[in-house]
């Protein structure tokens, strides 16, 4: 399982420092040089399709590493 999480850490995408909820929008905006407000609006619009929008956000929040390289899902799995 560590190999999977290490491959996620090798990606240049991180949950961003400008966080409102999980930092996913801030990380996407930082990676692509976009305005974080526009990314947040796009994410909110994607929530109109609940299965895709909310589900994708939760998966991203669980799998995208934070600035300190911690991954939420990996931390949860280590507890069990």
Describe this structure in words.
There is one protein chain. The chain contains five helices and no strands. With 80 residues, the protein is mainly α. Helix 3 crosses helix 4.
Q: Which geometry do the CA atoms define?
A: globular
Cα Rg: 13 Å
Number of helices: 5
Q: Supply the helix-strand structural class.
A: mainly alpha
Distance between the termini: 13 Å
How are helices and strands ordered from N to C? HHHHH
Helix content: 55-70%
Report the β-strand fraction as a percent range: under 5%
The tally of strands reads 0
Overall pLDDT score = 84
Unreliable residue stretches: none
The main sheet comes to: none
**Oligomeric state of shown chains:** single chain
Write the layout of secondary structure elements.
Layout: H1 2-10, H2 24-32, H3 36-46, H4 50-63, H5 72-78
Q: Top keywords for this entry?
A:
single chain, 80 residues, mainly alpha, 5 helices, 62% helix
Task: Summarize this entry quickly.
It is a single-pass membrane protein. The chain is mainly alpha-helical.
